[in-house]
């Protein structure tokens, strides 16, 4: 099949493991995410997300076509929806789209962004992709506090642990991969918990040694992570201690620094 391209034209689109409404949600696309179209069936298209290389199946009606000459420009996005609640864009028909933080604003210029041939009015001040401080990382992460946990989620109404980290760092100009084990292969190692700085990222493994969880250190004794909801818990050399449950819930494997 000739290589084709698309762009997500809804606020949130589910990316599934199989071409079925009953299939597991593996991740999500946000408004403005651009993709390669790998395979097509009558309803479902298998795509590859340009941002993190993640593949999955989605309803083709949630995509607009993108011409090849526009594709390269989309990789160099500079404007995002910020960590706020009032991220509204108005479509060509006058209807509103309510965007989650970290959504792209493709080809943004003079208060408008563009998806294919359609023009959207941006009714907020966009965030810009630029280097951020450790304080910026913490401010962004705590904005998501109490967002409910959702396997595969990446938005304000449901997010998983690695999706949480990916969006927080995207909003601060740092690209992370999608899954916790992939993110653990990035960054530089922090050797001791006492050397932790705000914004460092801790990874946790299961009994088989597989990395299954991730969260951001607020300091050497506290972590913010998505577990049931985005929450702040105590942390030590053993791992995360949940005071509500009265026990450790995640075993520390490694700490990495990305900023």
TrEMBL record:
Coiled coil: none annotated. Residues 3-67 form the SH3b domain. The keyword Cell membrane does not apply. GO terms for molecular function: cysteine-type peptidase activity. Residues 131-259 form the NlpC/P60 domain. It holds the Pfam family NLPC_P60. Keywords: Hydrolase, Protease, Thiol protease. PANTHER family: MUREIN DD-ENDOPEPTIDASE MEPH-RELATED. This is NlpC/P60 family protein.
